[in-house]
Fold these 3 entries.
Entry 1:
Amino acid sequence: DRMYTITNVGGTPGGEAFLLVTEEKAALIDSGFACSAGRMVANIKDILQDRPLDYVLLTHSHYDHASGSAYVQDAWPDARVAGSVYAKKILEKPSARAVIREMNDNAALLAGISEYEDRTDRLHIDIAVSEGDVIGLGTMKLRVIPAPGHTKCCTAFWCEEEKLLLSCETLGVPAGGGMVMPCYMVGYGLAMQSVERLAALGAEKILTPHRGLLEGEACTAFIENAVYWNKEFMRRAREGRRAGKNEAELAREFKELFYTPFMAEVQPEKAFDLNLGYTIPMLIREIDGE
């Protein structure tokens, strides 16, 4: 007897966005690509009908999670965009906006979308949230849990009563077959603190970015696999590095392991390579410094 619904309203694979509707309020979790934002807005309208959209909750500032929020606010001017203090700073940086624009153009190309209106310069955060802040969705209360690891600006949202975790990519992304692709780009130690903290919440339902809601055994398995693969990734990197492998060799090895057809459905190869291009050098620095 659930008092809320969660629906994937994303406009195209890889640009997932999830609409959380309670009896009193509605919040969009992430907002997908720019090029598919029109379709996403139409999907939201289909569900909400005449009801307002109250919030857009951003788990982090990356293009595939934040870009659609400018289009959403055109459709629902009263909706407030919430994200971390750090995400707010990122979205205000011209250099970050340039990357967001470039990655959106790449996503549009891959999706076969020839033209879309670029609203990157209007991306912003209205409510900068920090540890312990609460987003009220009527009877449902979401507590903000900073979870740096994938990025410094990553944030998760936790509903204690429902044992529902609206996660971020710091836990990793399911790669199929029980594998979870680690996504740490800002330090292994920092990421593991966040992973262990989220794992310890005792979630019974978890909203995973790109893959949607996992419940019961699927939720438990994902969290266990996330902890395992986040550690295993570093163990393999350490072993490879000590055996004399360089950056390119390690990157090739991890790509063979994790860039599965299942992963390719939600992440363009260019974005995967870009992430790995941050992660491997960072791990090498940590390993060489041990």
Entry 2:
Amino acid sequence: IFEPSLRANKVFQQILSANDGKLNAKSSVLAEFILTRFPNAVLLVNCIVQIAKNAHEKSQGNQLYFKFYKDLASFRYIQKILPDTGKRDSLILFYQGLKEIPRERENPHFWLQYAIARLSVPDKDNLDNAQRHLSHALQLARAKPGYWTDDIETQYARYYLENATRSFDLEEINNAMEEFSLGIGKILMVHKRDKYRKELYRPIALVKRFYTTHRNNLNPHHHLEIMGKCKELQAICKKDAAKFEDDIQFRRAKDNVDWVLREINLFLHIKDNEA
């Protein structure tokens, strides 16, 4: 890369510029490639945290820095630029670093983003932490008059459904059903407020995984309960079809709900014939 012949290459000059011995990426695709394959994740995260802290410090009264910090601190963006290897640990390290900013500890949106990072790898430890982060986010949000909590409630629905899917023991099936009902209840509550966004349909897609995980441990009463919830979800999908039909999350949610209802109808039909 330090050969003069390479630096003189026109293709090279389109993606990198060389100045005083430094190489600067001119292509966002190349920059993302470098970041996601960075060999030292801790070093990179510490650097990004420092950049975020500096931007946050300069953001008071400055919309450019405010938007830059807000984007960098969001799970949607940060997960795209962290190394692929050990991404879960890098995400947690990143949000732990941002937690050192005093104002962020009082910001419901920060705790929401931290929870989303935890939910991205829904093992027991992450789910437990996600629940605490969401609970804290709601507590802070409710203390702020007029604060919009639908995004937090949507992720709470996702938490309940992920947690319900995690239970495998036959003796825990009633707990799983309770978590499932709480998750669907959150979704229906947010939808009823009529201020929701298409992200509400992401947790709905989890109903298929919940059903396939537990179907062998469900009794007929459980099947009827799930059917009732899925019919309510089917109704809101029908209501929003014109609005979100081009969105992949919406289509996946609708298809998964329809699939579960078909499977339950088949199960009940077989049971009736056996009787």
Entry 3:
Amino acid sequence: MKFIGDFHIHSHYSLATSKELRPDFLDYWAGLKGIKVVGTGDFTHPGWLKELNEQLESAEEGLFKLKHEFKKKSCLPVEESVRFILTTEVSNIYKKKGKVRKVHNIIFAPSFTIAEKIQSKLTSLGFNISSDGRPILGMDSRDLLELCLDSSEDIFFVPAHIWTPWFSALGSESGFDSLDECFEDLSANITAVEMGLSTDPPMNWMCSFLDKYTLIANSDAHSPEKLGRNANIFDTDLSYENIINSIKSGNKESFLGTIDFFPQEGKYHFDGHRKCGIRW
């Protein structure tokens, strides 16, 4: 079946986000926009994971749906069978090779049990995962990937908005010159990258070193009405395994491509200085 998925979003526990980022509003807005599978965002936050546990119920393998009693009523044609997939974004800020690195990463988890296991591992290392839905960890991105793989071989790990200057794996101000430099011996586990709102596929196709990765697009929504401004198109059966395998393989019969925000509207599309009249 063909469907749309938007995986990188946030909850009301993240700083500078809408208080309406709750399961009922996410279900409603995803349905309104025709998004079949939406990420939960922020599963590393204990309060949010508790809300999700209370309001979602199991659907297909690794996917969840909102319990009927929490659904919002609408007079509009809304998709009634929205699915949730457990995702989170983590901000890794650390020093490596004499430079401060600030890299955001997206983690997909196949179950609440695995999400809780990742939470537990981070807490045992002394990290505060309760102050922000997108936690800031003084931890190497490579080490976070290892921690997640140790939690489950079924987790899926994606570098977020890879071109953002300040917070990404390839960021000009705080990133690396390659994904191999960032993830070192675990680089083979990186099979997809998120393009971000300021770029589109043709821009990324110009970089041949990205040819081996599947390019995905997500809204990074900080309010529910922003869902779907970037998204992914699938043609596969509904399940965590099928979705992740479609992205990993980049199979053009199951991963059909992306829906992309007009990149010129993105915050980082152009660089330059207005008063100097310079634009690169």
